[in-house]
Amino acid sequence: MKVLKEIYGVGILFFYYMKYIVLIGWPILLFGLEYKPNFIMDILWVYCFALATKDFIMRVVLKKKYCNIDSCSPSSKK
What we know:
Elements: H1 2-32, H2 39-61, H3 69-72
């Protein structure tokens, strides 16, 4: 179970920056430039879609942020 949590954590860290590039770029390469279908890229695209959907739900539907305004500010008053 710990290995699955580590894989999930690494995936989130890596795809935090890459999710929109893969989400938009893979269909363009596949359908626009006629690349051959790739099973691994299809799985990665689904993973990026799930991460983008999670972000949308957190920000728009639930209106939550990853941190509170007070805890994220560099000059917190104590």
